[in-house]
């Protein structure tokens, strides 16, 4: 009968024809037959099952085995003996040898027919040893899944005693080496199913043997904390953690964080790899374990580890919000990482370029998961805005992206920030994070030098310290017609409200950069001031001209008209008129010239000047200043009158006059000593008006 069956299976007949013939052979096998015929049929079915090159041949082998196991149990038990199984497990079968992939399936198939036989206990003992040996050989995910399936169906084959603990540890080692070799959807789903079978076996063992859990977790930590592995362990290890009872979490975390034998490098490696687990789909409680370990490290003040891990992993965690299957866990971890990282804006700013794209993607997805995540993300972003205010140029794209989403109230924000901070004592972090610094004791904010930009920083700080101008800029209504003034308003807002020691004026520099300046080179601050004030003045004038045209083409109220036809802010704050009079020494005729200015270049004569008889220059006391009338805001005299400028600004607008016949003089060969260059004169800044008056009006000098 075995020859007939083999001939049918190997023939070239269509499968439906073969199936009919095979069915007759199988029906005949249900009848009594001698032992030799049974052995021949069992050998043929084993050969078909283990070496068949098609699924059809393996199915025929399986059917025959099941028939003989059911109808000829004695012969089957005699055939399915310990020696035969040992040979299969250690040497494989036929020409394929150890490369035969179906040995474990074959054993699982045959076990169901010998469970009640006298040889069952010997077979189970053999399998308990052999599955441990197999696992120690690091089989593939597919073979590991077959072992797990076998042991799940036949728990009598699970190693016992010390061997059981070793088996759990070695199984975790196997999972740590699992890799999905294909990117196809079907292959990925198959891989996930295989991993779940293996981790499910661990769960089954832990339920009946809870004493194996902690040693298993210790082995897991050893794997993920290793610094010697060339390849990172598989994220499939996340599937192990999900089955650890949560009531053990506090004790496990406490033991880890207080274990002096674990170095900071090992701990950093372990928590970094655990954070990577957020990409593992279908894992439960993984985010809870990650957050618990982060909190545990904060409790023992391991801030250097937390800082390094957060900065290196936060972008990866954020990217997982794009995938619904891992979104919930990734968002929980992201929330804790950001809300706890309150000593610096660095972690949050790493995410700024990615937020608008993610928000757009979640809006497009339009699912309950996406909607919920958007609301939580918006709340998190507003918490970060509140904690690290002072970067409107960086935050503008993000604000635009989340403007339609709910804004949490201040109490909610403070609650979230208060319950997640690593520590309330900022100085506890200082030694771990050298970049952490607080506001100066003076209460003033510095400007970072962007490469020989002290000329710009000097001007910005001088304008900021002119209180009336600062208040006017900060109170301006933001408008698209004055982009440079808007950026200056932002910069002043930083200098007014930031808690940092210094800020970077990079955005303002790029907006106010004179086109003829050479990048990275030193420049004259008075030249920069002239360009800046001109730009601000012309921007506002342009806006006024637009409104003037609107007025001419439509009816405008008198109040609106008055508002838009007023002088520009630059004119009101720094504008004036200078009248220069020249008197002829012969006819005594005086010619005068009037010009607008926004700053004055002053020359300070030496204090020990003695005027020798000169017929060309009259002494100051004789023709000196007729009057000096300060502008509307005396404290704002010309903005920064001690700053040298190459040329006065021309303007068509009048302001309070300063009538001057001469502003001092110099002897032949003496050079004027204007204060200028790239530095602001600090001493002169104490009282510019009085300093000006003393120089110009002194009886002798």
UniProtKB/TrEMBL annotation:
Keywords assigned: Hydrolase
GO BP term (any one): protein deubiquitination
**What Pfam families does the annotation carry?**
UCH, Usp38-like_N
* Stored SUPFAM superfamilies: ARM repeat, Cysteine proteinases
One term under GO cellular component: cytosol
What GO molecular function annotations does the UniProt record carry, in alphabetical order?
A: cysteine-type deubiquitinase activity
Organism's domain of life?
Eukaryota
Q: Does the keyword Hydrolase apply?
A: yes
Q: Which PROSITE patterns match?
A: USP_1, USP_3
Q: Where is this region: Disordered?
A: 666-701
Q: Where is the USP domain?
A: 445-701
Q: Which InterPro entries match?
A: ARM-type_fold (IPR016024), Papain-like_cys_pep_sf (IPR038765), Peptidase_C19 (IPR050164), Peptidase_C19_UCH (IPR001394), USP (IPR028889), Usp38-like_N (IPR049407), USP_CS (IPR018200)
PANTHER family with a match to the protein in the record: UBIQUITIN CARBOXYL-TERMINAL HYDROLASE, UBIQUITIN CARBOXYL-TERMINAL HYDROLASE 35
Q: What is this protein called?
A: UBP35 hydrolase
């Amino acid at each position: 009968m075995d020859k007939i069956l083999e001939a049918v299976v190997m023939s070239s007949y269509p499968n439906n024809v073969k199936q009919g013939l095979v069915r007759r052979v199988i029906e005949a096998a249900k009848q009594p037959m001698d032992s030799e015929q049974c052995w021949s049929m069992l050998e043929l079915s084993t050969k078909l099952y283990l070496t068949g090159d098609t699924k059809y041949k393996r199915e025929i082998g399986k059917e025959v085995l099941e028939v003989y196991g059911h109808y000829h149990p004695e012969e089957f038990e005699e055939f399915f003996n310990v020696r035969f199984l040992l040979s299969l497990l250690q040497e494989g079968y036929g020409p394929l040898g150890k490369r035969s992939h179906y040995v474990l399936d074959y054993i699982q198939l045959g076990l169901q027919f010998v469970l009640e036989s006298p040889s069952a206990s010997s077979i189970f003992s053999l399998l308990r040893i052999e599955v441990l040996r197999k696992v120690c050989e690091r089989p593939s995910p597919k073979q590991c899944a077959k072992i797990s399936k076998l042991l799940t169906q036949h728990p009598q084959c699970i190693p016992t005693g010390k061997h059981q603990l070793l088996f759990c540890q070695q199984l975790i080692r196997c999972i740590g080496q699992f890799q999905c070799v294909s990117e196809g959807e079907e292959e990925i789903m198959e891989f996930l199913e295989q991993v779940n079978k293996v981790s499910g076996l661990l769960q089954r063992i832990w339920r009946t043997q809870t004493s194996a859990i902690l040693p298993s977790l210790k082995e897991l930590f050893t794997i993920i904390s290793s610094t010697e592995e060339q390849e990172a362990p598989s994220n499939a290890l996340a599937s192990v953690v999900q089955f650890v009872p949560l009531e053990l979490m506090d004790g496990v975390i406490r033991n880890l964080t207080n274990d002096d034998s674990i170095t900071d490098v090992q701990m950093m490696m372990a928590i970094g790899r655990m954070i990577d687990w957020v990409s593992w789909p279908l894992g439960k409680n993984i985010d809870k374990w990650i957050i618990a370990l982060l909190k545990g490290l904060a409790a023992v003040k391991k801030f250097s580890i937390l800082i390094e891990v957060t900065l290196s992993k936060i972008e990866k965690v954020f990217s997982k919000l794009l995938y619904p299957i891992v979104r919930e866990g990734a968002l929980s971890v992201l929330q804790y990482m950001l809300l706890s990282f309150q000593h610096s804006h660095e972690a949050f700013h790493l995410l700024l370029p990615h937020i608008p794209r993610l928000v757009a993607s979640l809006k497009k997805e339009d699912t309950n998961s996406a909607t919920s995540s958007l609301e939580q993300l918006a709340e998190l972003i507003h918490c970060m805005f509140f904690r690290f205010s002072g970067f409107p140029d960086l935050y503008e794209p993000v604000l635009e992206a989340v403007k339609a989403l709910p804004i949490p109230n201040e109490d909610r924000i403070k609650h979230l920030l208060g319950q997640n901070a690593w520590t309330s004592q900022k100085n506890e972090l200082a030694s771990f994070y050298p970049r952490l610094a607080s506001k100066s004791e003076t209460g003033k904010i510095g400007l970072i030098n962007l490469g020989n930009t002290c000329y710009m920083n000097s001007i910005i700080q001088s304008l900021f310290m002119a209180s009336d101008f600062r208040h006017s800029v900060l109170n301006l209504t933001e408008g698209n017609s004055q982009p440079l003034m808007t950026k200056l308003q932002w910069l002043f807002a930083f200098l007014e409200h930031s808690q940092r020691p210094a800020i970077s004026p990079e955005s303002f520099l790029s907006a106010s950069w004179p086109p003829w300046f050479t990048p990275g080179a030193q420049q004259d601050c008075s030249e920069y001031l002239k360009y800046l004030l001109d730009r601000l003045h012309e921007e506002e004038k342009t806006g006024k001209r637009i409104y003037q045209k609107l007025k001419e083409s439509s009816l405008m109220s008198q109040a609106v008209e008055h508002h838009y036809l007023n002088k520009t802010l630059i004119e009101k704050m720094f504008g004036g008129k200078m009248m220069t009079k020249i008197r002829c020494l012969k006819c005594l005729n005086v010619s005068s010239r009037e010009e607008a200015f926004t700053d004055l270049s002053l020359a300070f004569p030496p204090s020990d000047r003695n005027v020798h008889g000169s017929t060309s220059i009259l002494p100051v006391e004789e023709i000196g200043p007729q009057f000096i009338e300060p502008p509307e805001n005396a404290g704002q005299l010309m903005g920064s009158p001690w700053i040298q400028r190459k040329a006065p600004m021309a303007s068509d607008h009048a302001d309070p006059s300063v009538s001057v016949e001469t502003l001092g003089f110099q002897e032949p060969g003496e050079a004027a000593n204007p204060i200028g260059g790239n530095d602001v004169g600090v001493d002169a800044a104490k009282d510019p008006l009085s300093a000006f008056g003393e120089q110009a009006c002194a009886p002798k000098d």
